[in-house]
């Protein structure tokens, strides 16, 4: 099979890339190993994604209107998200809907496992195992959107990105329905160092979880969190990896790396779905102009400073309980809450969100440049 573009991976990044390419009348196939796969994921993404990528609002299972942060000593602050709410989706349904939108633009969908890639005479030659047997696909361009455990990355770069292991359980809500309208982030004793624990609304109740770079310690911390919360799980515990961003992977030998395969996850919050789709959008723009360097250029102009600031804040504030306590106390200031929400939810690079936020931290906190 000869095509213009092959997209490997049918999650949000891959599906958005395929849809945009097909809409531009470029012959595109999307390869997904399991069309019924349910990724263990909180399913939260910024509501602006639905407008930005013309996604049906009916896919939203829950609107999260505020965030609650809890310090090691139990101090709390509630932060309103205003109009920039967090949308909770069911990943199986959401991913399938995005693939159907791509198919409606004439993307070809292949259910099969990508096995290998070779580069011959300026083309990428893919081998894909399907239920009908192995097929070969020749493509002028390839988009690798096959997640944190990317087989494309493994084949081409002989490595995986740095990763954090997370685990979560779904717990039934009291009374059989989830009325939780906020996402809760907990810091301190129920959380591995350098990370946070969460309690989020879920379509089947609530999601309770935590994570760490040290895989073996996650279950013990999650046990403590579950015990402290007092509810019971309605299903098995599930674990999965989240990539850690380092900003190094964009394009190599005709392949564009997007989403989790490129580590495009926002430091500190580890929000990834929206940024995965944006990375796909930037990669598509580079393909349509046949200028691979545009992908890195556009991404860095839009998000590099934001990612660096969020990483610096994570490294400083999540270092120990004292700094976590300081972090939560900062959110007692209205200006800090408002600046945080702008930094997290706005994409306007013409306003100095990052510099403004750093100035407020210096005014109300005591972050030392050496620690950041």
TrEMBL record:
Pfam families recorded: FAD_binding_3
Residue ranges annotated for the FAD-binding domain, each copy included: 2-161
InterPro entries: FAD-bd, FAD/NAD-bd_sf, Geranylgeranyl_Rdtase_fam, Geranylgeranyl_reductase
SUPFAM superfamilies: FAD/NAD(P)-binding domain
Signal peptide (residue range): none
Domain of life: Bacteria
Protein's UniProt name: Geranylgeranyl reductase
Organism field: Candidatus Magnetominusculus xianensis
